[in-house]
């Protein structure tokens, strides 16, 4: 059933690469990617066979829609594939929506892996976005029509930081987060976690740390960073104390982590005052609980395993998707 559904989803998205992950303990993940819009149908099951058990989950993953509004001027992307693709992103996202909503059994949620909106900032004034149709309006119209609940995380194109110039940057809390909530609804939080079946899903925000702070000496938007507050929160979600007191709220449970940038793009030692001073350090400290880390951003399929990574440095050498005991085998065409 999942195989058939995946094939339909792949056709809808115009996918160019595909494959499958097998976690020998618990999870089966179908992965596919397109030029801009990428889709995955995740079936996480406690059983290796086809039968499902209580607590299993089904989640559709989408990434990198890069929705544009009427202000967008074609075509300034980094390559011809993206220049062609970005003009089709609305129709492709709607086609993906139709296919996701036709899946049987239906997924419990759609997780959107970031770069929802493409460079959508045309004013520092929130009121401008209410008065003028724009890319957030487009996003609100499409996602407001999804019958499957959508959980968001955000990507680099959902923010705009100009390092060294606060005046040329768009305020992350005062503007971006207001736009997300207003146009995409109460689930459009800066970062969040949810319990689904017997799994925890953690949605990280990689633009809240020093690499996205225009006034910080380490500002460089090529890199992902979470900020100390979110790092402490993540540690607690994974069952640790967070270094800031209080009890962990996560417990020891199988967890999927979602972050727009693949982990090698994450800034190291971003919060030196913390025991685990960056996202990779926190994840490695709790690797036993983490089933996989999913990312968007690169617009292409890749994966890596870190089964023997004992140090953060070893972990940093691994590539885009990480998990213990995850193996890859290409699907037959
Ligand atoms: Zn991106």
UniProtKB/TrEMBL annotation:
The chain crosses the membrane at residues 21-44. Pfam families: Metallophos. The keyword Transmembrane helix applies. It comes from the Eukaryota. Keywords: Membrane, Transmembrane, Transmembrane helix. Residues 57-300 form the Calcineurin-like phosphoesterase domain. GO terms for molecular function: hydrolase activity. The keyword Disulfide bond does not apply. This is Calcineurin-like phosphoesterase domain-containing protein. It comes from Chlamydomonas schloesseri. The lineage of its organism: Eukaryota, Viridiplantae, Chlorophyta, core chlorophytes, Chlorophyceae.
């Amino acid at each position: 059933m999942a195989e058939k559904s995946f094939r339909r989803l792949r056709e809808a998205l115009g996918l160019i690469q595909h494959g499958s992950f097998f976690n020998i303990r618990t999870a089966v993940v179908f992965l596919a990617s397109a030029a801009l819009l990428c889709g995955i149908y995740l079936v996480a099951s406690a059983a290796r066979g086809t039968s499902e058990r209580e607590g299993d989950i089904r989640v559709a993953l989408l990434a990198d829609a890069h929705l544009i509004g009427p202000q967008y001027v074609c075509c300034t992307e980094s390559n011809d594939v993206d220049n062609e693709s970005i003009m089709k992103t609305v129709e492709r996202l709607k086609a993906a929506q139709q296919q996701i909503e036709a899946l049987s059994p239906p997924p419990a949620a759609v997780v959107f892996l970031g770069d929802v909106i493409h460079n959508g900032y045309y004013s520092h004034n929130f009121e401008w976005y209410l008065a003028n149709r724009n890319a957030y309006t487009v996003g609100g119209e499409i996602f407001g029509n999804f019958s499957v609940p959508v959980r968001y995380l955000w990507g680099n194109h959902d923010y705009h930081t100009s390092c060294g110039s606060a005046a040329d940057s768009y305020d992350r809390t005062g503007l971006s987060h207001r736009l997300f909530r207003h146009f995409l609804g109460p689930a459009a939080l800066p970062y969040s976690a949810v319990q689904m079946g017997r799994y925890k899903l953690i949605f990280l925000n990689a633009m809240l740390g020093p690499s996205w702070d225009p006034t910080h000496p380490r500002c460089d938007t090529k890199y992902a960073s979470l900020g100390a507050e979110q790092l402490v929160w993540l540690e607690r979600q994974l069952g640790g104390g967070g270094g800031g007191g209080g009890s962990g709220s996560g417990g020891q449970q199988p967890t999927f982590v979602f972050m727009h940038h693949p982990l090698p793009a994450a800034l190291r030692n971003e919060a030196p005052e913390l025991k685990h001073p960056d996202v990779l350090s926190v994840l490695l400290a709790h690797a036993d609980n983490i089933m996989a880390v999913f990312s968007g951003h690169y617009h292409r399929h890749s994966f890596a395993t870190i089964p023997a990574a004992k140090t953060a440095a070893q972990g940093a050498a691994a590539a885009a998707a990480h998990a213990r005991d995850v193996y890859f085998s290409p699907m037959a065409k």
